[in-house]
TrEMBL record:
<feature type="domain" description="Solute-binding protein family 3/N-terminal">
    <location>
        <begin position="36"/>
        <end position="262"/>
    </location>
</feature>
<keyword id="KW-0732">Signal</keyword>
<dbReference type="Pfam" id="PF00497">
    <property type="entry name" value="SBP_bac_3"/>
</dbReference>
<feature type="signal peptide">
    <location>
        <begin position="1"/>
        <end position="22"/>
    </location>
</feature>
<protein>
    <submittedName>
        <fullName>L-cystine transport system substrate-binding protein</fullName>
    </submittedName>
</protein>
<dbReference type="InterPro" id="IPR001638">
    <property type="entry name" value="Solute-binding_3/MltF_N"/>
</dbReference>
């Protein structure tokens, strides 16, 4: 009798265990239906991707991606913050699935990576100097000067080529932290940087950066997200939602809030 009771009890336990496993499997299968997408971004680009006063990651790129995530039920976005200089390598080694950092196309990047088709931003790049600087009035005045760019950025590629094409004796300093770059410009250790109107306004208002724009726009380039070459399904899904967000005015609203102007008109 004891053996029979033990057998019945064991059978009941196994049945309960089996039910529990079935429930766990169902939950896992449901969770497995949503693909996690790791988004590589930065934290030093004010109003694009940065930490606010409460320590929250926010900015135009971040809030736009949150809106995209809300409309893509098959994906779950997770942000991973890193130095700008590490973003491309992280995408190439597939540590991240999507790169968001105000990225523009160039031949080198297009050879290795996939850009989505629908741009989500387009801003003019300018030469920026200290407000007291009267020597530099355009990019043609950086000959013999020291300028700073973010390594591997579109601005750095443009400036490097411009200096080479014009045989300028320009020293190019590569700085990854925007606060450091602004400080060096303010203290006179460098003569010029390359930035956007909204960033200059923010730097002046928030940190008394004492910056001014000089000359005509150097670039007016469409901005995209970047993916691994084979991730066309993800890229297409992002494009589809981006077009919706442009049409319904969400991009206009976010652009005005974070960038100070409606750059969606350029898209």
């Amino acid at each position: 009798m004891k053996k029979l009771l033990s057998a019945i009890l064991l059978s009941a336990l196994l049945l309960l265990s089996a039910c529990g496993n079935s429930s766990d499997s169902s939950t896992s299968a449901s969770a497995a239906g949503v693909e996690k997408i790791i988004i590589g971004t930065g934290s030093q680009f004010i109003n694009i991707c940065f930490y606010d006063e409460n320590g929250n990651l926010t900015g135009y790129d971040i809030e736009l991606l949150k809106e995209i995530d809300n409309r893509l039920e098959q994906y779950e976005f997770e942000f991973q913050v890193m130095d700008f200089s590490n973003l491309l390598l992280s995408l190439e080694t597939k540590k991240i699935d999507l790169l968001a950092h105000n990225m523009a196309k160039n031949a080198e990047r297009e050879e290795k990576f996939l850009f989505n088709e629908q741009p989500y931003n387009a801003m003019p790049l300018h030469v920026v100097v200290h407000e007291d600087n009267t020597e530099i009035k355009s990019i043609d005045d950086i000959n013999g000067k020291t300028v700073a760019v973010a390594p591997t950025s579109n601005a750095s590629i443009f400036v490097e080529q411009y200096v080479k094409d014009h045989s300028f004796d320009t020293e190019i300093s590569y700085i990854t932290q925007s606060a450091d770059m602004n400080n060096q410009l303010k203290t006179g250790r460098i003569d010029a940087i390359f930035s956007f109107p909204f960033a200059v306004d923010i730097n002046n208002n928030a940190a008394d950066a004492q910056q001014k724009i000089v000359g005509d726009p150097l670039l007016f380039t469409d901005i995209f997200f970047m993916f691994n070459k084979e991730d066309t399904e993800l890229s297409n899904a992002v494009d589809e939602v981006l077009k919706e967000l442009i049409e319904d005015g969400t991009v206009k609203e976010l652009s005005t809030k974070w960038l100070g102007a409606d750059y969606s008109v350029q898209l």
